[in-house]
Amino acid sequence: MSNQTFLTVQALTTYVKRKFDADPHLRNVYVKGELSNVKLHPTGHIYFTLKDDKTRIQAAMFRGRSSSLQFKPENGMNVLITGDVTVYEAAGSYQLYVQTMEPDGIGALYLAFEQLKKKLQQEGLFEARFKQPIPQIPQRIGIITAESGAALRDMYSTINRRFPMAEMLLFPALVQGRGAAPSIVKAIEQANRTEGIDVLLVGRGGGSIEDLWAFNEEDVARAIFSSRIPIISAVGHETDTTIADYVADLRAPTPTAAAEMAVPDHVQLVQHLNNQQRSMFLAVQTLLKQLNKRLETARSAYPLQYPDRLYRPFIEKLDHLEERLRRSSTGLIQEKRLNFDRLYAGFQYYTPIHRIQQETQQMKQLETRLHRATEQAITSQQQRFVALMRMMQALNPLQVMERGFSISYQEGEVVKSIEDVAVGKQLTIQVSDGTIETVVETIIPKEVK
C-alpha cells in the first residue's frame, strides 16, 4: 500500500469529467422527461431536475439559451430537450446542460400563449369594467400597423369610403419579427402623447402564429391596457385570436372590420339625420295643430266672451276683505296701545333712578345692621377676654407660689411623690422669688390612718 499513489478527490473528478467530455455519445443528446424542482434564477439561468418514473438527472439551462424560450418552464411539464452531459466538478455529479427545450405534445408558442393568457386574466386585464367605449363619430383616428402592409391600405380605403371627413394619423410600427413588440409599444405610447386622437386601430394582416406573435407579447398587452385612447384590435383573419384581442377595448376579426367599427357609414348617417329631421318636422306640425285646436277652444269658451263676469265676484270679495282688514287693524292697534301703556308703566318702575333709590335705602339698612353687629361682636369679645385673663391669673403657678407654695425638681423632673427622690440626691426648689438647691437627708412617708 505504501508504494501506491492516491488520487485526490479533485483529480479523480477531473479525470471522470474528461472521460465524459471525450465521449461523443454524450454530446447533443436528445432526452425527454418531466420537470421538477424548477428554479428560475434572477440572472436568467434555469435549474431543474429532469425525471421519469425510474430515475432523475440534474439539469441547467443558462441565460444565453433560456432567453429564447417562448414559454415558462413549470413543475410537472413534460418536455423534449437537447443538450450535453458532463460532470459538475464542485458537486462530483453528472449534469445535463440544456441547449433547447420545447413542450412534449403541444407547441411552445401555444403553451406560451396559454400561460400569458391565464396570467393576465387573473390580473383582470380582460374584464369588461376596464373597457373604454368607442366614440360613435370620431374626428381623428390613429392607426398602428406596418407602413407598407395591405392592412393599412384596407383600413384607409374603408374609412375614406365610409366616413371621408375623418382625419387619419399613421404611427408606423414593425408588426413581425424580434423588434416588433417594442415597436408596437412605442407607437401606442406616441399616439397617447398626441392630442385629439379619438380611437386607435392596432393590428396587421393575417399570417402564421409566428407572424402574429408580437401581438401575444406581454409588453404589448400592458401597453394596450394602459392606453387612455380606446383601442380596437385588428389582428389577422377572423379565425386568428391574440392576447391583444382580449385586452383591447373592442376586437375586430380583420383590419377592414376594425375600420368599419371605428367610423359610421356617412350615407347611413345622412339618411338617419334626414329621418330624424322628418320625424321632428312631423312632431312639431302635430304639436302646432294640437295647440291651435286648444287655442280655438279657449277662444270660444264662455268666460273669455264675457271677461267682466270672471272678475266681478272677486271685486266684491276684495271689498269685503278690505273692510275686515280695516276693522282688524283698528282692534289690533288698540290692543297694542294698551300693551304699550302697561309696559311703559312697568318700565317706569324699573327706571335707573327708582332702582338707585331702592338700592340706597337698602344699603343704609345694611350699614345700620352691620354697625350694630360689629358693636355687639366687639363687646362680646372684650367680655370673653376679661374672663380669660382672670382665669389665667387664677391658674398661674407664680400666683400660687406667692401664697407660700413651691415646686421641687430632681434632675429636671417635677417631684410628685417621695418615691421620685432618694436620700443624698440633690433637689431644686422653685419659690416665687427664686430657686433653692438642697440635698435630701431624710424621707418621711405620710402616716396612713
Structural class: alpha/beta
Number of helical runs? 13
Give the termini distance in whole angstroms. 135 Å
Helix content: 40-55%
CATH fold field value of the domain at 126-264:
Rossmann fold
Total number of strands:
14
- Looking at the overall shape, the CATH architecture of the domain at 126-264 is 3-Layer(aba) Sandwich
**Low-confidence blocks of residues:** none
- What gross morphology would you assign? flat
**Integer-rounded radius of gyration:** 61 Å
Properties at a glance:
449 residues; alpha/beta; OB fold (Dihydrolipoamide Acetyltransferase, E2P); Rossmann fold; five-stranded mixed barrel; five-stranded parallel β-sheet; 13 helices; 14 strands; 47% helix; 19% strand
Describe the structure.
With 449 residues, the chain is α/β, with parallel strands linked by helices. Among the domains are: 9-105, Beta Barrel (OB fold (Dihydrolipoamide Acetyltransferase, E2P)); 126-264, Succinyl-CoA synthetase domains (Rossmann fold), CATH 3.40.50.261; 402-439, no CATH class. The protein has helices at 9-22, 63-66, 108-123, 150-162, 180-193, 218-226, 243-247, 255-262, 266-299, 302-305, 308-349, 352-395, 397-402, and strands at 29-40, 46-51, 56-61, 78-88, 93-103, 140-144, 167-170, 199-204, 231-235, 250-252, 407-410, 413-414, 426-431, 434-439. It has a 5-stranded mixed barrel with strand order 1-2-3-5-4. The chain has a 5-stranded parallel sheet with strand order 7-6-8-9-10, with helices on both faces. Strand 11 (407-410) and strand 12 form a beta hairpin. The longest helix has 44 residues, at 352-395. The chain is flat, with a radius of gyration of 61 Å. The model has no long low-confidence stretch (mean pLDDT 84).
